[in-house]
Amino acid sequence: MSIDTVPGRVNRDQLGFRRKFGVLGPSTNTSVQPDFDDLRVPGVTNHYSRIVVDNAKAVSNETFMAGAWEISDNTVDAVKGVLTCAPDYLVMGMSAVTFFGGAEGADAWRRNVEEISGLGVSTGADSVVAALKAYGPGIRKVAFFSPYFPTANAEVKNFLADHGYETVRDIALQCPSWLAIAEVEERRTIDTFKALDGDDVDALIQVGTNISGIRAAAAAELYLGKPVIAINTATYWHALRANGIQDRLMGFGRLMSEF
């Protein structure tokens, strides 16, 4: 299939003549839209649909999980909204709930969105696993950090374990609100990668889409000498490759430039 051809489409969009991506993200998320636009390639356009939520104050495991499920519950309305621009594919710019319930729960969540939309979907959870596989079979032990609370980190560990990856270490930054996640400075991201690293770790991961880690992760790959995956990079990479778009981008790590 030509990358310039979308099955069933009679007329090509002037700017999105290769693919139009419907991007779903919480209304409080200010990082996904600019990150995905930085990763965009010619002929692909991103059309952001906000999952309307309040700026939840996460002060405990319980309040964080309640806020995450609110995002999940409001996703359907955002999906219906973005369908009006006739996207070719959906890209989930929210990650926490895509890990919940292990591999089985993640598959069920994705299938529900696919059934509602009639489109293929890239989720953060699926994309992280695909990225780890792209780096090769030598990746078995990982470490990750998130803006979440420990209960949500446990869900990520469970999901990764279901796919055969052992979490050696993890850090939950416990950001106090959804907006506060975007306020995590690049220096803190870099320092957290360093704190996670060790000879017992094959790859490092950053989850939580409102942290803009696409450049810090690319830099960390250079000075740590091992795969470092930012979830926004992985998710957009997954969407491009799932649609047969093989463009390579420099400056965003090996995932975008080699695989």
The helix fraction, in percent, is 40-55%
Which quaternary structure do these chains form? Answer: single chain
SSE series: EHEHHEHHEHEHEHHEHEHH
Across the major sheet, the strand order is 2-1-3-4
Extract low-pLDDT stretches.
none
β-strand percent reads: 15-25%
How many beta strands in the DSSP annotation?
8
- State Rg: 17 Å
**Overall body shape:** globular
| Helix and strand composition category | alpha/beta
Question: Major sheet, described briefly?
Answer: 4 strands, parallel
Number of helices: 12
**How would you state the average pLDDT, rounded?**
92
What separation lies between the terminal Cα atoms?
Answer: 19 Å
3D architecture notes:
This protein has 259 residues and is α/β, with parallel strands linked by helices. It is built from twelve helices and eight strands. It has helices at 32-39, 61-73, 75-82, 96-99, 102-117, 124-134, 150-162, 178-181, 186-196, 214-224, 231-242, 254-258, and strands at 19-26, 44-51, 89-92, 121-122, 141-146, 166-172, 203-206, 228-230. Strands 2-1-3-4 form a four-stranded parallel beta sheet. Strands 6-5-7-8 form a four-stranded parallel beta sheet, with helices on both faces. Helix 1 (32-39) crosses helix 11 (231-242), helix 6 (124-134) crosses helix 11 and helix 9 (186-196) packs parallel to helix 10. The longest helix has 16 residues, at 102-117. It is globular, with a radius of gyration of 17 Å. The two termini are 19 Å apart.
Write out key terms for the chains shown:
four-stranded parallel β-sheet, alpha/beta, globular, single chain, 45% helix, 259 residues
